[in-house]
Specification:
The chain has 13 helices and 16 strands. By secondary structure, it is an alpha/beta fold.
Length: 378
């Protein structure tokens, strides 16, 4: 591989922004010079950032099941998802595959298995721009959750497991009004059936949640898979997560649960769409509030891939104590560290040359080029 030189760039390092040149050799960062080289690709003063690292996006499902009752060919869905991920500046993505369904007519036990196989096929055939890992989102109160998780684990390696419970009246949907607004707004159920549906969901929790959780804890231990808790709403939820060996608190819903997670040493992951929108769509604590408290470690694009880069540039504008390098770390270096990917996540000597060139247009960050291990992929 020929050397790659990127010059006349604003390099966002771990603790500062410097104007200079990068030398990439054999897929790694070989040199960082605080000057402009005479030869090299002129970046025109644009930012060069470490490639973004996304720990939780369920956006693949939108490509695999674009309409109710429609299942798109899996490899094609993965490729379409990957193209959108790369266009958002993401070079490493943990695809959140779902295990568990509340709808008996939407049996998902084999979807994780199918999608994991499609991701593996696409990667083996060099069809993807980003590097893909697996994050299994396990809905505890569903009848098929444990079976779905076990089928997926038998197909290939799972890299993260999140323990979720979207029962109405609990965690994310503490407010039943918000639950109804979400489900009715997305036309997931007709109004006259919503109350019966809520009672059915609560019955599922009583019947299945504890059994599924123990099985998933056993599976995570057997396969040595790091775990995340989802939508912690109270300090008791956090204490339960700590006892379970959880490493990350995903989307804590209250100031109290965020403070408890920080106190117990859990890393806190919040939504980038939450920051861009100015608040949670479920009426929960805002990402900005968590950041102002000094608790924010990682941001995730969740359901909008483009939000990750936008939020990284927006965060220093919203929270004056946070610098641009610190904001970029929440979507790169911090994510890499918690995922055990110590070869990437920052512009530093010896790190992988996973890089994104960014300019701004209409005050929105624009991805212009993307490299993975020194090879241009966008």
């Amino acid at each position: 591989m020929a050397d790659l030189v990127l010059t006349n760039a604003n390099l966002v390092l771990a603790d500062e922004v410097v104007h200079g040149t990068l030398l990439i050799r054999d897929g790694q960062i070989e040199d960082i010079a605080n000057k402009t080289a005479q030869k090299g690709e002129d970046m025109g003063g644009d930012y060069i950032l470490p490639g973004l690292i996304e720990l939780h996006t369920d956006h693949l499902e939108n490509h695999y099941r674009p309409r109710p009752g429609v299942q798109w060919p899996a490899v094609s869905a993965v490729m379409a998802h990957d193209a959108q991920i790369a266009a958002a500046g993401i070079t490493t993505v943990f695809d959140a595959l779902r295990a568990g369904s509340f709808d008996p007519g939407d049996y998902l036990a084999r979807d994780g298995e199918i999608l994991m196989g499609a991701i593996r096929t696409a990667q083996e055939q060099n069809l993807l721009r980003a590097e893909h890992f697996i994050h299994l989102r396990c809905e505890l109160p569903c009848p098929d959750t444990l079976e779905a998780a076990q089928l997926t684990a038998q197909t290939g390696r799972i890299h993260l497991i999140s323990l979720m419970d979207h029962t109405p009246g609990a965690r994310q949907f503490t407010s039943l009004d918000k639950f109804k607004q979400y489900y009715l707004g997305r036309k997931l159920i007709v109004p006259e059936k919503i109350d019966a549906y809520i009672e059915e969901r609560r019955a599922y929790q009583i019947k299945y949640a504890a059994h599924n959780k123990q099985g998933l804890l056993d599976m995570a231990k057997a396969y040595q898979i790091p775990m995340l808790s989802h939508d912690d709403a109270t300090p008791a939820h956090v204490e339960e997560a700590v006892a379970d060996g959880v490493m990350i608190s995903e989307f804590p819903t209250t100031a109290e649960s965020a403070a408890a997670a920080h106190k117990h040493g859990l890393k806190i992951l919040m939504g980038a769409p939450n920051l861009i929108r100015g608040g949670s769509h479920s009426g929960n604590i805002s990402t900005e509030e968590v950041a102002r408290a000094g608790y924010l470690d990682i941001m995730s694009s969740d359901y909008v891939p483009a939000s990750l880069l936008m939020a990284a540039f927006e965060l220093p504008k919203r929270v004056e104590t946070i610098t641009l390098p610190q904001a970029i770390a929440t979507v790169s270096k911090n994510s890499a560290a918690i995922a055990g990917l110590n070869d990437r996540g920052e512009i530093a000597l010896g790190k992988r040359a996973d890089l994104v060139r960014v300019s701004t247009a209409a005050q929105v960050p624009l991805v212009k080029q993307l490299w993975r291990q020194g090879s241009r992929v966008l």
